[in-house]
Design goal:
Elements (H helix, E strand, L loop, with lengths): L1 H7 L4 H11 L12 H14 L2 E4 L6 E9 L5 E10 L8 H20 L14 H13 L15
Helix pairs in contact: 4-5
């Protein structure tokens, strides 16, 4: 799931190893990640951009965009996700959805821990995604929301 990958990406490597060993990597659809190396690459990409996507990996025809929320111990313990059928959540809209999930995660995280996850989103000029990114940049530019290292909580 999107939220599962968003949380797993911020677990220590030994915890990921244990979870994969105990739970396995069962296929739910033809898009499910079932290879350990592919999972590691996906988790690294999630840490780099700050959000996860499930593109029909759990349920065919469903898409989920998720961003982690960090607690006061800098652990990803919760998250925000946006899910829906792929016919309503077109691939072209992933930038807008990721911006929305990321902004929501930042807002939710601040009163809990003050930890702000790094978020990398892309947007086409003149789109709602670009407007969301402007809002995110404006919000992040305030003194209480100092920038953080990509993929890592502040601290």
């Amino acid at each position: 799931s999107g939220i599962g990958k968003a949380l797993l990406a911020y677990h220590p490597p030994e915890a990921v190893e244990r979870i994969v060993r105990e739970q396995g990597l069962a296929a739910f659809t033809e898009r499910t990640i079932t290879d350990r190396a592919a999972l590691e690459a996906e988790l690294a990409a999630i840490r780099e951009r700050g959000w996860a996507v499930d593109d029909g990996e759990r349920t065919e025809g469903m898409r989920c965009i998720a961003a982690p929320i960090f607690n006061e111990f800098r652990e990803a313990t919760a998250g925000v996700s946006i899910s829906g059928p792929t016919v309503r959540m077109a691939r072209a809209g992933v930038g807008m959805y990721s911006s929305t999930a990321a902004i929501s995660a930042r807002i939710e995280a601040s009163p809990i821990s003050g930890i702000v996850p790094f978020i990398a989103c892309s947007a086409e000029p003149g789109t709602d995604s670009q407007d969301s990114l402007r809002l995110l940049a404006s919000w992040a530019a305030t003194s209480e929301n100092a920038p953080v290292t990509p993929g890592r909580p502040a601290g």
